[in-house]
Design brief:
Number of helices: 19
Radius of gyration: 25 Å
Distance between the termini: 71 Å
Strand order of the largest sheet: 1-2-4-3-5-6
Strand content: 5-15%
Number of strands: 12
Oligomer: single chain
Helix content: 40-55%
Largest sheet: 6 strands, mixed
Shape: globular
Length: about 600
């Protein structure tokens, strides 16, 4: 058994810590038309400045690594302008994404479209980066791909995932950008096309990350239906059967009438089919699956106009396949057939296909990102600054001391690291606190956001980064108690916008929203400010405890059987912890004032 587990971890790498960077360097070595930004996992076209001068929309995508050739393989003329890669199955930090946006969007009047796959960490970190880019005056917008057809329940969950359909979106967006279409035109067209697209996956095995074994266990005679691309298990486990039967199972699930993510396929529909290798299937198996999928669609009367078979979006070495179906018209076919220099796009052999002339390219030796001047906003009083400093210290210390407690809570619905993740953020803030201009809450909140996203990463880093970024925007005129209340509200709204969670979904919002409402109520009634904060803290703690009775409808816990969730949500509980610490710290300072 031990030998089997060790075998599952075999990887031809130098180190788990450097494998993503090493992989990108190798990819760039083989594709000299691309550039890798120094000290950042950002890949860009070498003719970027020429693209900007041509007044064409630029395109960015990205996400966790482990899906090679995605996303770097789709950077090139006719597809993406740049991509930003995170660690294995982990969203890149918002600060790195923002750097990528600056590189691509600065001095580009046509604007930039950021295309991301629908995963919570990506929505949060890319959303935060885009919001910051907008604050800096850059013309940038987002488009989220969510064509997964595995989801059956119509109840609210973390939502339909983005899968291999993203590659078709890259292709169409890239062709439209080369044609000179506007940012608004491209996003509008993609929105319509996404509704005509669906993907379903199946696998015979799990994948293993460079630092661990298999991410889920599956018997030799079983296969997993409806799984994603991050090593997570699927929606059901079936006995292995023939390729023909597998295709029927996949399409039956994709088109089932009671499914919340159903794709309707009717006789006469013109379709594009993508048969995508999830990483570990042989070409023999891929060809057989392609044959069966085409025959199935033609037998129901559909017209299969384009077939793409190959490795587009993987989950490391997972021995599986996904089928993507896209209803197409003549315009779609034109964009799919249009020329691209992206190295990983696999096109059908179409000898009659005609493409436009390739424009001449010029290499760009370096990319310089100009620094954006910041308005620090209004100042606190000296005593207010002292209170702010002390509140941050006590909040961070409380979170650090609660690491084990929060990790235990997180084991029910997560991966047991909530406390450790928040502790990293708290320690990062404490180590930089003496460098923060705490006299200026706006700038300090921006720096808190940077600390959170860079040290915590993933969903937690993205959420707190969004919260602090939203809160900072309240401090434009003054720093009154009501401004702080408005800041919390703006931070909450930004988390809701990109996290797609609401009160009652069993997340940290279940503590923050009632606390904000309580604080606002007491301040509107001109109550004592310290009493108002105390009431808000009690509201946060009570609401956090009540999450034990809620069904998870957002985040990772939404994928877990609700019967297993018996304790309060760790994120909500953490809000109660740091709010209590802030209150006690401020009360201590106020009581120390001379009478």
């Amino acid at each position: 058994m031990f030998e089997l587990e060790m075998d599952e971890r075999k990887k031809l790498i130098n180190s788990a810590n450097t494998c993503v960077r090493d992989s990108l360097k190798g990819f760039i070595a083989a594709n000299v038309g691309l550039r890798l930004i120094e000290n950042a996992n950002i890949v860009v076209r070498h003719d970027l400045e020429e693209v900007k001068r041509s007044n064409k929309v630029t395109l960015i995508s990205g996400g966790g690594s482990g899906h090679e050739p995605a996303m770097a393989g789709y950077v090139g003329l006719g597809m993406l302008t740049a991509c930003v890669q995170g660690e294995i199955f982990t969203s890149p930090p918002a600060a790195v994404i923002l750097n990528c946006i600056r590189i691509v969007a600065q001095n580009n009047p046509a604007g930039t479209l950021v295309i991301l796959l629908n995963y919570t960490g990506d929505r949060l970190n890319f959303g935060l980066a885009v919001e910051r880019a907008k604050i800096e005056g850059l013309l940038v917008d987002t488009f989220i791909v969510n064509e997964d057809c595995a989801l059956v329940s119509k109840d609210k969950t973390a939502g339909r995932r983005g899968l291999c359909g993203a590659v078709l979106i890259y292709k169409i967006a890239g062709a439209m950008a080369e044609e000179g279409r506007s940012l608004c035109e491209i996003k509008s067209a993609l929105t319509r096309k996404l509704s005509e697209m669906g993907t379903i996956g199946i696998s015979l095995s799990a994948c293993s990350t460079p630092s661990s074994g298999k991410l889920f266990k599956i018997n030799f005679d079983e296969m997993e239906l409806g799984l994603g691309i991050h090593g997570e298990a699927g929606i059901s486990r079936l006995k292995v059967c023939s390729a023909s039967e597998v295709v029927h199972i996949m399409f039956n699930h994709m088109t089932r009438e009671d499914s919340a993510s159903r794709l309707k396929i009717a006789s006469g529909d013109h379709l594009c089919l993508v048969v995508n290798n999830l990483g570990g299937l042989s070409q023999l198996e891929m060809n057989i699956m392609t044959k069966e999928a085409v025959e199935y669609l033609e037998n129901i009367g559909a017209v299969v106009t384009r077939v793409y078979c190959g490795t587009f979006v993987t989950s490391l070495e997972m021995a599986g396949v996904s089928l993507t179906v896209f209803k197409v018209d003549k315009t779609d076919l034109f964009y799919l057939d249009d020329h691209t220099e992206a190295s990983s796009w696999i096109k059908s052999f179409l000898p009659e296909n005609k493409v436009r002339q390739t424009p001449s390219l010029k290499p760009v030796s370096d990319f310089v990102v100009s620094k954006v001047s910041e308005d620090f906003g209004p100042k606190l009083s000296p005593f207010g600054c002292d209170l702010f400093n002390h509140a941050l210290q006590t909040a961070c210390q409380a979170i650090i001391s609660s690491e084990r407690q929060l990790n235990e809570l997180d084991k029910e619905g997560g991966d047991g690291d909530c406390g450790s993740t928040l502790k990293r953020g708290a320690e990062e803030i404490l180590s930089n606190l003496n460098k923060f201009p705490t006299l200026y809450p706006k700038e300090t909140l921006f720096r808190l956001a940077h600390c959170a996203e860079m040290s915590m990463g993933g969903c937690s880093g993205g959420l707190y980064g969004l919260f602090f970024t939203g809160a900072a925007q309240a401090f434009k005129i003054d720093c009154s108690p009501k401004t702080w209340c408005q800041a919390i509200n703006l931070g909450v709204n930004m988390m809701k916008k990109y996290g797609e969670a609401e009160e009652g979904d069993r997340t940290m919002l279940d503590a923050l929203i009632p606390a904000c409402a309580s604080l606002r109520l007491h301040l509107v009634n001109d109550g004592n400010q310290l009493d108002a904060l105390g009431a808000a803290v009690k509201s946060a703690e009570t609401s956090a405890a009540a999450t034990a009775e809620l069904r998870a409808r957002a985040g990772r816990a939404s994928y877990v059987n609700s019967d297993l969730l018996k304790s309060p949500d760790p994120g909500a509980h953490a809000v109660g912890i740091w709010m209590r610490a802030v209150f006690e710290g401020i009360k201590q300072k106020v009581k120390a004032l001379p009478k």
